[in-house]
C-alpha cells in the first residue's frame, strides 16, 4: 500500500455555520443599490471564525466591524442592515443596535441561542450558573452577558477552586458549544467533587457538530501516522480538533492546524505513510481540497475516508431575513 490520505467524515461546515454564511450571502445577492453610498450589509465581528470565509464575503461588499459604533448613521428613515455572527451577542449589543436604529439580522447559531435561553430560565428560577468556556471568545462573552452577576465563567478544572458557593445555593452547569467533550469531562468531574449538588443541563450544550467531528478525528487517528486539521487559530472547535487528534495519536505522530495548504511544512510528513485530514465547522471544503492537493504533490496519492455520523441537520434562515424576502424558508 502506498502513501495515503485518510479523510474524516463529517468535517467542515455545520448547520449553524452554513446558516450564518448563507445569511450574509443572501443579503449580498438580493440587496439593491443604496442611494446613500453605504455598503449593502455590515457584520459585527467575524460571521464565523475563518479568515478565508470573511475575506470572500468582504470582497463581495460586506463590511466587518468590531463594534456597532463603527457603523455610520443612515440618512433620514433609511436603516443600515447589520448581521450578528453565529457566535451570538449579549443583550447590551442588542440594545445598542436598537438604539441606533439598525436593521438587525441575527445569525446566531440556534444551538448557541439555546444556551442563552437556558441562562435566562435558570436565573429566573434562582440559580447561580457555572459556565465552562473560553474567556474572551465571542460565544462566551454573549452568554455571560445575559446575566453577568449570576454566570461564573471558568476555563479549566483548576479554576474550580476559586469558586465559592454554599450548599443552599441552587447551582447549575452550562458549557460553550465548541469545547472538547474530553476537556469538559475533567472540569465537570472537579465541579461535582467540590459542589456535589450542582445540576447538569437537561442535555449537553456541546453541539452535535463538535461531538461528531471529534469522534471522526479519533477514528481517523487509528489509521494515520499524523493528522492535519484545517481551521483558523481563533476557531475554538478547530483548535479542539487538533488537541483531540494529538491525544488520539498518543505520541505516534504529530497533529497540526493550518489555515490552508500554504501553511503546511513538508518536514511534518517525513517517514509518514498515512496522513489524516479533517477541518473545523467553519471551514469551506475547498480549503480541505487544497490540503489534499498539496499532500498529493508530496507523494500521498491514495485517498481513503472514514465515515462517522451522517449529519442531516438544517437551520432555516433568520426570521428577519425571511420577512425581508417576503417568504418562508
Automatic annotation (TrEMBL):
Isopentenyl diphosphate binds at residues 49, 87, 137, 235-237, 282. One of its GO terms (biological process) is terpenoid biosynthetic process. The active site is at residue 139. Coiled coil: none annotated. Dimethylallyl diphosphate binds at residues 49, 87, 137, 235-237, 282. [4Fe-4S] cluster binds at residues 14, 109, 207. InterPro entries: LytB/IspH (IPR003451). It comes from the Bacteria. Binds 1 [4Fe-4S] cluster per subunit. Belongs to the IspH family. This is 4-hydroxy-3-methylbut-2-enyl diphosphate reductase. Catalyzes the conversion of 1-hydroxy-2-methyl-2-(E)-butenyl 4-diphosphate (HMBPP) into a mixture of isopentenyl diphosphate (IPP) and dimethylallyl diphosphate (DMAPP). Acts in the terminal step of the DOXP/MEP pathway for isoprenoid precursor biosynthesis. The lineage of its organism: Bacteria, Bacillati, Actinomycetota, Actinomycetes, Bifidobacteriales. Pathway: Isoprenoid biosynthesis; isopentenyl diphosphate biosynthesis via DXP pathway; isopentenyl diphosphate from 1-deoxy-D-xylulose 5-phosphate: step 6/6; Isoprenoid biosynthesis; dimethylallyl diphosphate biosynthesis; dimethylallyl diphosphate from (2E)-4-hydroxy-3-methylbutenyl diphosphate: step 1/1. It comes from Bifidobacterium cuniculi. Transmembrane segments: none annotated. Its cofactor is [4Fe-4S] cluster. PANTHER family: 4-HYDROXY-3-METHYLBUT-2-ENYL DIPHOSPHATE REDUCTASE (PTHR30426). Its EC number is 1.17.7.4. Gene3D superfamilies: 3.40.50.11270, 4-hydroxy-3-methylbut-2-enyl diphosphate reductase, catalytic domain. Keywords: 4Fe-4S, Iron, Iron-sulfur, Isoprene biosynthesis, Metal-binding, Oxidoreductase. It catalyses: isopentenyl diphosphate + 2 oxidized [2Fe-2S]-[ferredoxin] + H2O = (2E)-4-hydroxy-3-methylbut-2-enyl diphosphate + 2 reduced [2Fe-2S]-[ferredoxin] + 2 H(+); dimethylallyl diphosphate + 2 oxidized [2Fe-2S]-[ferredoxin] + H2O = (2E)-4-hydroxy-3-methylbut-2-enyl diphosphate + 2 reduced [2Fe-2S]-[ferredoxin] + 2 H(+). (2E)-4-hydroxy-3-methylbut-2-enyl diphosphate binds at residues 49, 87, 137, 177, 235-237, 282. GO terms for molecular function: 4 iron, 4 sulfur cluster binding; 4-hydroxy-3-methylbut-2-enyl diphosphate reductase activity; metal ion binding. The keyword Metal-binding applies.
Amino acid at each position: 500500500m502506498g502513501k495515503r490520505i485518510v479523510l474524516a467524515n463529517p468535517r467542515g461546515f455545520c448547520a449553524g455555520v452554513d446558516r450564518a454564511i448563507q445569511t450574509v450571502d443572501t443579503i449580498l445577492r438580493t440587496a439593491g443599490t443604496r442611494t446613500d453610498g453605504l455598503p449593502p450589509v455590515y457584520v459585527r465581528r467575524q460571521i464565523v471564525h475563518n479568515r478565508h470565509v470573511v475575506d470572500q464575503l468582504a470582497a463581495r461588499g460586506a463590511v466587518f466591524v468590531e463594534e456597532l459604533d463603527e457603523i455610520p448613521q443612515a440618512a433620514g428613515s433609511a436603516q443600515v442592515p447589520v448581521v450578528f455572527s453565529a457566535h451570538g451577542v449579549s443583550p447590551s449589543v442588542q440594545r445598542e443596535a436598537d438604539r441606533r436604529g439598525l436593521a438587525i439580522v441575527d445569525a446566531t447559531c440556534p444551538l448557541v441561542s439555546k444556551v442563552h435561553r437556558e441562562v435566562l430560565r435558570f436565573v429566573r428560577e434562582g440559580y447561580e450558573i457555572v459556565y465552562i468556556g473560553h474567556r474572551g471568545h465571542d460565544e462566551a462573552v454573549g452568554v455571560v452577558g445575559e446575566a453577568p452577576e449570576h454566570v461564573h465563567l471558568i476555563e479549566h478544572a483548576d479554576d474550580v477552586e476559586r469558586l465559592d458557593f454554599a450548599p443552599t445555593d441552587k447551582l447549575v452547569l452550562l458549557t460553550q458549544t465548541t469545547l472538547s467533550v474530553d476537556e469538559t469531562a475533567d472540569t465537570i468531574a472537579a465541579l461535582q467533587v467540590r459542589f456535589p449538588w450542582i445540576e447538569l443541563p437537561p442535555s449537553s450544550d456541546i453541539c452535535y457538530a463538535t461531538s461528531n467531528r471529534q469522534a471522526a478525528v479519533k477514528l481517523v487517528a487509528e489509521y494515520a501516522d499524523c493528522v492535519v486539521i484545517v481551521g483558523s487559530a481563533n476557531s475554538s472547535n478547530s483548535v479542539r480538533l487538533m488537541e483531540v487528534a494529538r491525544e488520539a495519536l498518543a505520541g505516534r505522530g504529530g497533529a497540526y492546524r493550518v489555515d490552508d495548504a500554504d501553511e503546511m511544512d513538508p518536514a511534518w510528513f517525513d517517514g509518514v505513510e498515512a496522513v489524516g485530514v479533517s477541518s473545523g465547522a467553519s471551514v469551506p471544503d475547498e480549503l480541505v481540497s487544497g490540503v489534499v492537493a498539496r499532500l498529493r504533490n508530496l507523494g500521498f496519492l491514495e485517498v481513503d475516508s472514514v465515515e462517522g455520523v451522517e449529519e442531516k441537520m438544517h437551520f432555516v434562515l433568520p426570521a428577519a431575513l425571511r420577512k425581508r424576502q417576503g417568504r418562508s424558508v
